[in-house]
């Protein structure tokens, strides 16, 4: 048989196949020499390497695929989701891959890059007043579902969100650190990443410390939320997080600039907030392997003015 006749196009992965398995890299300059001398290592999980550019690629494809498996949706249906940006982009990509109409509801003050990216994938956008925040966007999505305008996947209550992090993100970190991880740090938005990853890591070693980054009072950090009790994501399990650390907007934005300049790591603001928390931990411990999630890339925030023009 000739090489030409043996060629099998199905042997190549699809876009969906390359979601996940993102690199875990060591920061070289951010960790002060005295902290490194104490045996600490600071590792960044580069979720911006996913096809649509964020950690949300994982739950987006998981929620759609598993809803299909349960017979709840089928290609051609309309899906609805309230989003602060990254989940919307990921869902827009996933909907394009699998053949759905995607309607995304987003507060009007979020970065223009995110809105443009969602539209590029073919999604329809509904912008809500800044004053209503994500709470208003979530309420509107539910109302549209009640009115029969489509199905809400609901990243905030959908168990397929943390489940994919239990199945993939946690195992990847455990394997890539050789089981030596001592601390896991994640920004908290929908809480899917921290809840699912924590569950896996705690099963391997209950001593792994799970730390969540939340915004300090008055801070608006895209991707990080401190929810009112009535809107607390149903997927969140408080027992899965050992410590909550508040991050100011100025600290997160300064860290985003430092990561780019000192490490060559162009990360988003919530990822920078997680890095800030990880560095605080490194000052308190010794012989620690600290992993934080770089949930997206900095190019989604160029219009915000965080990075110098």
Task: Give your account of this protein's structure.
The chain has 309 residues and is an alpha/beta fold. It starts with a helix and ends in a 15-residue tail after the last strand. The model has no long low-confidence stretch (mean pLDDT 93). It is globular, with a radius of gyration of 19 Å. 48% of the residues are buried. Helices cover 38% and strands 17% of the residues. β4, α5 (112-120) and β5 form a beta-alpha-beta unit. The strands form two sheets. Strands 1-2-10-7-8-9 form a six-stranded mixed sheet. It has a four-stranded parallel sheet with strand order 5-4-3-6, sandwiched between helices. Its EC number is 2.5.1.47. InterPro entries: Cys_synth, Cys_Synth/Cystath_Beta-Synth, CysM, P-phosphate_BS, TrpB-like_PALP, TrpB-like_PALP_sf.
Which features would summarize this protein structure in a list?
alpha/beta, four-stranded parallel β-sheet, 10 strands, 17% strand, Cysteine synthase, transferase, pyridoxal phosphate, EC 2.5.1.47
Q: Low-confidence parts lasting 5 or more residues at pLDDT below 50?
A: none
Which structural class should the secondary elements be placed in? alpha/beta
Strand share of the residues? Answer: 15-25%
Distance between the termini: 58 Å
How are strands sequenced across the largest beta sheet?
A: 1-2-10-7-8-9
- Helix/strand order, N-terminal first: HEHEHEHEHEHEHEHEEHHE
Average per-residue pLDDT, rounded, comes to 93
Instruction: Please bin the fraction of helical residues.
Output: 25-40%
Helical segment count: 10
The 3D shape can be described as globular
Radius of gyration, CA atoms, in whole angstroms: 19 Å
Number of strands: 10
Profile the largest sheet: 6 strands, mixed
